[in-house]
Specification:
single chain; Neuraminidase; 3 domains; six-stranded antiparallel sheet; 13 helices
Length: about 950
Amino acid sequence: MASVTPSFFGRGASGWVRKAPAAVLAFAALALLSACGGGSSGASGGEGKAADATSIATASAVVPVDERTAALQAEGARLNTVELEAAEAIASTVSSAKAPPKASFNATSKATSKAVAGVVPVYRFFNTRTQAHFYTTSATERDQIRNTLPQFQYEGEAFSAMGAAGAGLSPVHRFFNSQTGVHFYTISDDEKNHIQATLPQFRYEGVAYHASKVAGAGLIPLHRFYLATRGFHFYSASPTEAAYIKTTLPQYVYEGVAYHVPGTVEPVAGVINPILFVTQVPHTADFAARMSTFANHLARPDHVPRGGDLYVRYPDGSLRNLTREAGFGMDGFQGAQAIAVREPSVHWSGNKALFSMIVGAPAVRYQVKTFYWQIYEVNGLAKGETVSITKVANQPLTYNNVSPFYGTDDRVLFTSDRPRGGEAHLYPQLDEYESTAIVTGIWSLNPANGDLRLLNHTVSGAFSPSIDSAGRVVFTRWDHLQQDQQADAQRAGGTDYGATTYASEAAGAASLGLTPEVFPERRANHTGAFGAVAGYTNNFFAPWQINEDGTDEETLNHVGRHELSFGFIGESFTDDPALTYSSNPAFRANTKYLRGDGGLMQLREDPARPGSFLGIYAREFGSLSTNQIVRFNGGIGVNPEQMAVTDVTAPSNPDGSITGGRYRNPLPLSTGALVATHTPTAAATAAQMTQFLIKPLTVGAGGLQQAGISLTGGVREAVTWWDPDTQRSFDGLLWELEAVEVVARARPATRQAPALATPELSVFSEEAVSEAELRSWLRANDLALIVTRNQTSRDRADQQQPFNLRVPGGVSTVAPGGGRVYDIAHFQLFQADQVRGYRFPGRRPIATPMHEPRASHPANPTGPVSSVPIAADGSTAAFVPARRAMTWQTTDGGGNAVVRERVWITFQPGEVRVCASCHGVNERNQAGGLAPTNKPEALRTLLRHWKTLPR
């Protein structure tokens, strides 16, 4: 591993800084750090006598290190660490005794002031003959080597030291290894004595210079590495260089901080606040596991290995393990005190945070115990503060509660797999795709009194929620909304899943056998009332929004698949030539096509660019939710036709690989900088992803961002656990996930549902109905009211379903190009009932005709079950159950489906939700008209009916 290339680290004012592109740096560091050691000036430091020039010049081949020598050197490293830890403990005790509360005491203040006058540079060379680094504080020796020994490549000033003894300082002892021709340094008297007693090849040469055993103002840590195969040590005061070695050169064993030397913190551009993040023992399972796109909330050890912690990284590069400080977690074998942690979220004040944690793991083989993710709050995030971690009160105790964050009113919002109504026999809710356990929606909790509310009932899950600057709860939602593929396989004579339909959600409900689903259309192509019908499946992860009280649930700004996944959506009736599988590019600004089997994950608003969001454009399976980082403009009120997704990092290649590696958990910072979790693995293959580290991003080729050097230098841990059948073990760098910035943020105003518009208010007034009285009745009956002004009006870009629509004897909206016109007469409503069961626990929701008895409507004898008539003006109005996912379709007079909603929507008690058109109108409808403004006659009919109901 010889090298004649000089190092690409040069010393700047604040330490060692990178001076070359990352790709060049990686090559250079790999070559140059193939071995390392040290040299120095004379025993008194400064301009003392030069080191043995003959030894330096003649040192040649590296002598292999035997196991005994390696073990003795490792013991020396341990002694150094123990001694420095003891010194820090003493300094902390002195600080606590003498300093006022929350004040920082500089245990080395005298040493620091002394160092200002006595600081000397330490020069670094690379010896191409020994492949080691040589250090000296002597300018004379530096110049002599440069002039006479060409095998030594000069690399500049590596760090600084103190040239003379002083208060608070300790001597740094220097040894010369006669076998390798390399110098070794230690500040530890215990290590010095150990080497002198056990390693005769190390010749003691006295004191090289002085440094400090403890941290302090004006001091920075000098990191120490050991290459066991050659017996060399390497030293660096650069956190960037140290991080690169720790995370990319595993052959170099990190032995910790050697001692502390004069210097200033090497800043990372844009990272000026603490970063809170979690670590996770690597686990490459990509289905229903910790890193999956969905069903990632499960708590068994085969879904999420134990061993991670909650960390904070301060701007000076120091790390703090908050969970360990608070008494949570354990090293080695993961037993009763083991933990796993996830998804921290910082309070508006910046002084506390929420996160989810599992406590406990199987203590013996085959032990099957039930564990749950629960929400905890951490205080004491600032340096010098005492950390405390407490479990959030009154949360659901026997369910998995994840993705917590603070509401604008300080309620705790989170996702949970608690059943919609808390029915234990319905646990867990199973998703619409793989019939796998899923979270049921976003919940809101007041920990003080236990007030718990379901904000939206998500049939296939909601992920990574947060509150944006406009006060919206923004999250990724998955509507698979297709018929049951497990039931289809069973009907076709394939795997017998034991699929059956229960008569209701009630405990003990009778099994009806495998009944057919009624919504949406079948998954396979078939023939219907309007000819050939395309089979329908959907697997898109879209951005969604709701208010904090759960009202106004919709895709972000009502953006549709025809703006985001605009190709190959599939027309519903293939015999209608007017329908198309692709939307018109003239009706969308977005040119980046998002695949239909993935979408936008891990969304975060950019605090430096309000309304601009970053996320990961990832596939449903195979890549641990990794891919490229993208940006899109989703600010409040942005017209969906103007929303566009753009590349932030390199897009994937045709084979799914990404040049430069893959990303997860983007974190836009308040400074405008960007950090993210990064793996150097290019392939979209979970098993190959052996490293996930938080890194700052910098501008690279073509203006795209690329990963820099690890912010943390990596967190190493060795753990063993039962999964529960097989004993697993890991020793290496933990994965770093879900970083958040610890900084105060402006608390947005709590966003409410908008007031009713003039058309609807006019109807209320003309019918002498009090809006407040109606809303009160709705809340008392756990109902909502939904209104559409004109079901025949559709957005001009949505041409995958019929868009030339007519109400018999009433309004029609037909595109200029003409084509088949469809009559629509009824509006049929479906609710998500958990009535599909299998051989395994849990129930899958099925679209079931609405059957809420309190939702009374005027009789509609000619319409299909659970439908209301479409009025002559195209309007509809209906009472629907609240806090339960709903969907719908328009049908012709015979009850044949024409236009299907194809997403689930949840309404809140007392909510009155008005849509002007079916699917809304962004700019113009299919006929070139604006959004409807008619007074909905269907609302008038329903209000008259309501006045006849008992109250």
